[in-house]
Amino acid sequence: MSYLGLVESPDPLHDIGAYSNALEGWLGSNADVLTLAAAAIPEYATRVDAMRQLMAALHADGWSRYGWPEAVGGLGGTILHRAAMWEVLSRRNVPGMALFEHLEILAPALVALGPTDFVADALPRFLAGEELWSQGFSEPDAGSDLASLRTTARLTDDGYVLNGRKIWTSWARYATWCLVLARSGTTESRHRGLTAFIVDLRAPGVEVRAIEQANGTDELAEVTFDDVLVPVDRVVGDVDGGWKVAMHILSHERGTFAWFRHLPLYQLLVDCSPDARSADDVALGNALLDLAAVTAASRAGLEVHASGIPMGPLAAVPKVLLCAAEQSVNDWVLATDPDLILDPFDEIAAVRRQEYLFSRIVTVYGGSQQMQLDTIAKQILSMS
Question: What is the pTM of this model?
């Protein structure tokens, strides 16, 4: 019997607080599900396995199904339920979403614009950690200028044939599926000639090569498509309508994802404060203010999405604020006690070191900081 059946109000859809409290109670009675996920694990493959086990447990008792439509295997509710779930997990020392970040980046677009039968079959396996997803956008010659991408999709009698190369593809080494943006129109058509495809990374012609980053993880990969056949029913959105899909995804990657990303930063400050030997109160105050700004902006974004309205250009605001918070928090930890990050013999320090180094590049992924500022200036503030 699910723990949800034991609470006085078994349907947390009516109240986010009731959902959070019930999940807290379940975790208190099932602390073993957090043993690995809340541990400091420098080895990335081991961390991925730990998160898969946690997601399997959360799915089995229904917790991760709240916030997703019933038509695709969910139990109803909104993104606020998902936000509450990860907030509770963060308080229990789960250090982040790892590769399940794509539940909040890709899955909303799949639910809104993807083939319903496929998504209804695939999303539950994603929620349970059985099959994982990656995002195939950036290319060697098309990073910030995504509209110039060159991976092609040619329609044949058997389906679409993909050829090209993607770079910096997050989680591809561990993923089963990749949401790939490819050119179905001419090069001159730019963003009007792009289509989003669901690609099976196990298909013939797909090659995934992991990229080891400076922080020692292999989160990113290079993915090559050599005459890869994609069925016609694996199109997300409309043919030549991939830009709409991309903007839907980026609205989450830049906007609401800031909520999920910033939660462990608060926990990092709490964990490191008692050990700081020479705390810089001004730097700590700045870090807390940066986090408070992300909390406010990303919470507002959650409310917007919960009402069914895309954030659009407003997503640039929490992305800019998150970058500042992520760097200021990590800078404070390093400045107050370098051993918290640099100790070569401590596994917790090893994980913090990975996060510190990753914080140096947060102004690049999901669109560069310069692009976000340009969006804010032109599309929000109407500056010429």
Answer: 0.92
